[in-house]
Design brief:
The protein is built from five helices and eleven strands, in the order βββαβββαβαβαββαβ. Helix 4 crosses helix 5.
Length: 227
């Protein structure tokens, strides 16, 4: 809660205090049930981040590094939707993990309940008539540039609506600086999924869309293709 002089006293409110409703979740232990052919792996930040994304779908949230008194100072992100902060996701603060002698760090999220319940309902779409085309690119950017910034720029590129999906599937950092990558740089591998409602995309159209994405990243972040 927070102090807010404009809040009146009523059956559901306390005068002078704002008490917004939240929805929260916590994950601890194995990310999946025990299976003979799958190695045990604890749920991590990215598992819970994916849960938050699924909870808010079809809206697409973004994440920015942030702090929260209950969360790990370096493993916490602010959740934004349409540019507005709606909650946090992150690991439990080390002092609480140590206090309760936990074997691994629980990961949790907290979101504004109104935003979750008011999200748009997914709308069914016809099955695509024409095949998807996938292309992978690897771009080098400065280390301080967050991958969410890069992905937002990818989706903002003017690809005539052909870019349907983009996913970051690898991050590479050189152990030592070399001719192709400086010490303060990283390489992001991104898979682009392209499709047209009107016809199967030809090679020229595919190349045009990919180059448009690369140009957008170059303009916004001085990114370059990894050789």
């Amino acid at each position: 809660f927070s102090k807010n002089a404009s809040v009146p006293d009523s059956d559901t409110t306390v005068k002078g205090f704002d008490q917004p409703m939240r929805v929260a979740g916590i994950s601890f232990g194995n990310a999946a049930p025990v299976q003979w052919d799958v190695k045990d792996q604890s749920a991590d930040f990215y598992d819970v981040k994916a849960d938050v994304q699924a909870l808010l779908a079809p809206a697409v949230p973004t994440f920015e590094a942030d702090t929260h008194p209950a969360m790990h100072p370096g493993r916490c992100a602010k959740v934004l939707l349409h540019g507005e902060a709606i909650g946090h996701v992150g690991e439990l603060h080390p002092k609480w993990r140590q206090s309760w002698d936990l074997s691994s760090a629980p990961v949790m999220f907290e979101l504004n309940l109104d935003v979750v319940t008011e999200r748009a309902v997914p709308v069914a779409q016809a099955v695509e008539r024409f095949p998807n085309v996938e292309r992978d690119i690897a771009v080098i950017v400065k280390e301080h540039i967050a991958h969410d910034q890069v992905m937002s720029a990818v989706h903002a590129a003017s690809t005539q609506g052909w870019l349907r999906y983009a996913v970051l599937f690898d991050v590479y950092r050189a152990k030592t600086a070399n001719a192709s990558m400086a010490a303060d740089e990283k390489s992001l591998a991104i898979r682009l999924t392209l499709n047209s409602h009107e016809a199967t995309l030809n090679d020229a159209q595919i190349d045009q869309a990919v180059q448009t994405v690369v140009a957008q990243l170059a303009q916004q972040f001085s990114a370059r293709l990894r050789s």
